[in-house]
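During data preparation, a discrete fold description was generated, and the record follows.
___
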Amino acid sequence: MAKDPYKDNLGPRAVFARKVVVGARLVVVLDGGMPMRGLELIVQGTRGVETGQIHELIGTIEDGTGPGSVVNRINYLGFIEIGNGGLLCEGDELHVDGRLVGYLAGFDYTHMPNHMNIVIRVAAPHSGLERGFELGQTVQFKLASAPV
């Protein structure tokens, strides 16, 4: 039976030296949040995404958020349509309209196969509407320029 290196702790994780920037666009701007959402992030810190897929962005200010953790305090950011496929990785920078919003913390499968929740560590608990997000804005996931 195949082993999952994330679940079975088989040693050091892959270090991503270079990867394509995953581009997307905002197709829904969300408002609001929840204090006790209970998102269960999967233990894997990476997910491949394909062109045309729709996924949700959710922000959190909780310390220690990462693969395998439970996230309660959240703010809804928006939904995105993937413009070019690639690999999303824990620690990636999330930019909206050229502005750094936060760092990818992990993935929640509550609504799969409809869409994946992509959880972002942010500095302030603001929704997409409160951040001034607009429909059609460019979204980019970039390899972090410095350790997160």
The two ends are 34 Å apart (CA to CA).
